[in-house]
């Protein structure tokens, strides 16, 4: 038994390693890429749409609605980034039903990379909306004394994003692995289904928190949606 898919090495040459995390990550990206190509290949504007296009529109509309509810008035601007985060984390969790598959999000290196993407995206969208000067001034609100605390908050929430997702996904995979060794097959199957639900929730939480941080960056004042969402998500 291993704690992380990083420990499963398929190939190594010197310091170069090809581990399970890399293989599974590229596998998930390949499936998402090919699926998007296939689904969007024959899009139609007619009344009668294919089942795949209906599903795609439901997913996109749902994500846009959630983004708008957080406080981002033009959700299409953020759909590509936040939607990709949600779909990647969610798909990585759903694939746990495949025997031998280990979610790459059970590796701290993957969750840290996702959190770093959010860390870069927040100032990117903030500067794009307010300009460099306006965004930097937000670190000195309500007073310049808050500058170091706001910087520490920016760094700590990035760490919290990575550790929260890693801890939840790793613990779920570990529980299922333990139960497979000490109990009959039926019970681990139930736990796997519960793990799928947990993974979907974690994908939602991760993407919503990213949206909240971006919303905070593009507004000069902390939006009420952020306070409400953070309180709900951290429960």
**Rounded Rg:** 20 Å
User: What is the count of DSSP helices, taking H or I runs of 4+ residues?
Assistant: 7
Q: What order do the strands of the largest sheet run in, or round the barrel if closed? A: 1-2
Q: Could you name the ranges where pLDDT drops below 50 across 5 or more consecutive residues?
A: 220-228
| Helical content (DSSP H or I, runs of 4+) | over 70%
The geometry reads as: globular
Strand content bin: under 5%
Question: How would you characterize the overall build of this protein?
Answer:
This protein has 235 residues and is mainly alpha-helical. The protein contains seven helices and two strands; from the N terminus they run E-E-H-H-H-H-H-H-H. The chain has one domain (5-233). The model is unreliable at 220-228 (pLDDT under 50). Helices cover 71% and strands 4% of the residues. Helix 2 crosses helix 3. Strands 1-2 form a two-stranded antiparallel ribbon.
